């Protein structure tokens, strides 16, 4: 059964990218609820490479600040939470548990770091998309951002690990009065073909 029109509006048609936030907190329980949905969405061979850091405290936000592009500083510092969406290059170590029906997978990725990186980035990005939709489904607004220094964020938040940052996503309740008019999207004929 398709989900109803109201739900489609929440997820897609009325959902906007927010940069100004209402003074309304986002609880740790809600952040956990986002991941509790994200984890069920599909990745190749169930590799589940996404790793997420929720930056909430003032101190942690200050660690993020120097790595943000200037235009992203205010919107990030004022957001109730900022998620760092990362991907683990060594996601394969979990495959014996996550993909028990595919016993050769761990070795295949260990032998081919380029394949491992491509797989981690592709599926981590997919999980980032699922993340935005899950947050929206739970009543939150999102402000995704790639305007930051990935290497700096990796040093600050992922030092000594095999995790790399992909993009950031501010989370909260957006101020609809601050939105600019919505930009156009490509039509079906411009973006798609049925062959
Ligand atoms: C991966 C990604 C990176 C983005 N990077 C930035 C950014 O660095 N700064 C910013 O203000 N907006 C950023 N955006 C927001 C987009 O410009 C915005 O989602 C798009 O224009 C659609 O706007 P709408 O959702 O309001 O229709 C980013 C969006 C995505 C998905």
Task: Summarize the SSE layout with pairings.
Elements: H1 5-13, H2 28-38, E1 50-55, H3 58-64, H4 73-78, E2 81-88, H5 95-98, H6 105-111, H7 113-137, E3 141-145, H8 150-157, E4 163-172, H9 188-191
Antiparallel strand pairs: 1-2, 2-4, 3-4
Helix pairs in contact: 1-7, 2-7
Flavin mononucleotide binds near residues 16, 17 and 167.
Report the total helices: 9
How much helix is in the residues?
40-55%
Shape type = globular
Task: Please trace the helix and strand order, writing H or E for each element.
Answer: HHEHHEHHHEHEH
Structural category: alpha+beta
Q: In oligomeric terms, what are we looking at?
A: single chain
Widest beta sheet: strand line-up: 1-2-4-3
Bound molecules: flavin mononucleotide
Note the beta-strand portion. Answer: 5-15%
- Describe the largest sheet: 4 strands, antiparallel
Question: What Rg, in angstroms, do the CA atoms define?
Answer: 18 Å
Mean pLDDT across the residues is 98
Index terms:
195 residues; 4 strands; 15% strand
Structure description:
It is a single chain. This protein has helices spanning 5-13, 28-38, 58-64, 73-78, 95-98, 105-111, 113-137, 150-157, 188-191; strands at 50-55, 81-88, 141-145, 163-172. The mean pLDDT is 98. Helix 1 crosses helix 7 (113-137) and helix 2 (28-38) crosses helix 7 (113-137). Strands 1-2-4-3 form a 4-stranded antiparallel sheet. The protein contains 9 helices and 4 strands. The chain is of the alpha+beta class. Helices cover 42% and strands 15% of the residues. It starts with a helix and ends with a helix. Bound molecules: flavin mononucleotide (FMN).
């Amino acid at each position: 059964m398709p989900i109803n029109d109201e739900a489609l509006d929440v997820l897609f048609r009325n959902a906007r990218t927010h940069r100004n936030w209402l003074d309304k907190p986002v609880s740790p329980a809600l952040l956990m609820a986002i991941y509790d949905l994200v984890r069920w969405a599909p990745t190749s061979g169930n590799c589940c490479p996404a790793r997420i850091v929720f930056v909430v405290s003032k101190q942690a936000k200050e660690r993020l600040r120097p790595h943000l592009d200037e235009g992203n500083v205010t919107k990030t510092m004022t957001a109730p939470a900022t998620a760092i969406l990362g991907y683990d290059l060594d996601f394969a170590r979990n495959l014996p548990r996550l993909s028990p029906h595919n016993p050769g997978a761990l070795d295949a990725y260990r032998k081919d770091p380029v394949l491992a990186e491509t797989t981690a980035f592709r599926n981590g990005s997919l999980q980032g998309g699922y993340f935005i939709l899950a947050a929206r489904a739970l009543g939150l607004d999102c402000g995704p951002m790639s305007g930051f220094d990935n290497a700096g964020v990796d040093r600050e938040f992922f030092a000594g690990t095999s995790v790399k940052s992909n993009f950031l996503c501010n989370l909260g309740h957006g101020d609809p009065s601050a939105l600019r008019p919505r930009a156009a999207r490509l039509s079906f004929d411009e973006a798609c073909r049925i062959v």
